[in-house]
Amino acid sequence: MQRLSEAQRIAFFSVLLNLVVTAAKGVLAFLTGSTALWAETLHSLSDLAASSATWVGIRLARLKSKTFPWGLYKVENLVSLLIAGVVFFAGYEIFREGVLGRRQVELTNLSVAIPGLGVIIAAIFLFSWFEKRKGEEFNSPALKADALHLRADSVSTLVVLVSLLGAWMGHSFLEKIATIVVILFLVRAGGEIMVDALRGLLDASVDHATLDKIRETIARDPRVSSVKQVMARNSGSVIFVVAEITLRSYSLKEAHAISEEIEEAVKEAVPGIERVTIHYEPEEKDYYLTVAVPLAGLRGEISEHFGSAPYLALLKVDRRTREVKEQITLPNPFLREEKGKGMKLAHFLMERGVDVVLTRESLEEKGPSYLFEAAGVLYCTITHRDLAAVIEDLEELVGREEERAEVRGTGTGREG
After folding, report:
1. For residue 296, which of 303, 342, 377, 390 is within the disulfide window of CB 3.0 to 4.6 Å?
2. What is the pLDDT of residue 147?
3. Phi and psi of 50, rounded to 5°?
């Protein structure tokens, strides 16, 4: 809401600037008798109408009702499309007056008009730079479009200034050359504004960088097993996100709370997001589970420590029979780390899809235990001294831990 309020103030200042600029151009046109300057005054009047529409569009964007429960954010896109039309019209107007116009008029008071136009150009350019920066900060297509339009206006005013300088120096042909350059600039600016507005109106996806950032933010949560799909679209200056994710087995209440936390994390990571809709489902368990046991040596001695264990045994266990179908031994990649070995090893095991961790060292109230609990990984303190004994008791050890988690249910989806 605060972002929209500041955007409204900036758009209102744009209206005031255009009002002052239009009046100043009208006075200078009256003093010089320049038809090009009169045309530029009419051009500024169209700018004034477009800036007013921008301000009105941003004010309407915040309104919600029973008929429009999602808000009127696309009004900004409609306003941007209107501004694109004004830019194209201005290009035609300049072409008609500056290139096709043949009327010769005796100009007066050039010593006043030339510096006056210089001040006007500087004021317009500086404000357009400020408005463009704020438009990018607020992700407001209306502010960005108005900034581009103002910049086009400063260049079109420069055309008039060049024509006056040319008349003062006796080189009137400079006006036609500058006019052609400005027309090309206006066509490009209008095209960019129009494309951005149409993308918003047609619900085109946001850019790939933003999508990747949203996906990475969701996947970073250890309780998320996988991110199936992320879709995001612009609507005016805001973004709507829909994500389909898989959570490790959690109750409906827990899954609901997790999705809320993910929504807040996404909103914090990507500015301008209005709504995040999370559809979640439980992780599909395959026929096997992976059990990790820290080892002191390659002969199967179980380590007294978790993070400082030289080796790790990973057991692929049949869920139904509890038989070990595959066994591999890996070196601890963080053994030589000075700090955070336990947490790093916990992350490493989670990345490898470990379901159960069996250790002689108690992990209660330690960093790895909190990480495992958040990710739905079962962990258990054992008294066994060698891996062979652990394998013999796997059915009892794993079954006991799974019974503790059996009360957990699953959820379906929510919006936030």
Report:
1. 303
2. 82
3. -65, -40
Of 87, 278, 263, 107, nearest in space to 185 by CA:
87
CA distance 143 to 51: 9
Of 140, 142, 193, 398, which is closest to residue 292 (Cα–Cα)? 398
Relative to beta strand 238-247, strand 273-282 is parallel
Residue-level pLDDT at 413: 37
Contacts of 29 (CB under 8 A, 6+ apart): 37, 38, 40, 41
pLDDT at 407 over 60: no
Q: What is the model's pLDDT at position 345?
A: 92
Fold of 288-405: Nucleotidyltransferase; domain 5 (3.30.420)
Residue 297 DSSP SS3:
coil
On whether the CB atoms of residues 3 and 87 are closer than 8 A, the answer is no
Confidence (pLDDT) at 161: 85
pLDDT, tens only, 124-170: 888 888 888 888 887 777 678 778 778 877 877 887 788 788 778 77
Please give the Cα distance from 171 to 162 (Å, whole number).
10
Once rounded to an integer, what is the mean pLDDT over residues 7-13?
76
Whole-angstrom CA distances from 284 to 174, 246, 288, 325, 410 are 72, 8, 11, 20, 11
- Asked if the model's pLDDT at residue 414 lies above 70, the reply is no
Structure tokens at 28: 């200078």
Of residues 98, 102, 103, 109, the one with CA closest to residue 174: 98
Q: Which two tokens stand for residue 229?
A: 């799909």
Domain 208-282 homologous superfamily, CATH: Cation efflux protein, cytoplasmic domain (3.30.70.1350)
- Give the pTM: 0.52
Is-contact 263 294, C-beta < 8 A? no
Spatial separation of the C-alpha atoms in residues 356 and 289, rounded to whole Å? 8
**CATH architecture, domain 2-201:** Up-down Bundle (1.20)
Residue type, 205: S
Per-residue pLDDT, averaged over 340-362, amounts to 89
Which residue in this structure is represented by tokens 């990973």? Answer: 314
> Domain extents for the chain?
2-201, 208-282, 288-405
Closest to 377 in 3D by CA, of 347, 407, 397? 347
pLDDT at 216: 92
Query: From the DSSP assignment, how many helices (H) and strands (E) are in the chain?
Result: 12, 9
Helix (H, G, I), strand (E, B) or coil at 403: helix
The whole-angstrom separation of Cα 79 and Cα 145 is: 9
pLDDT of residue 416 exceeding 50, the answer is no
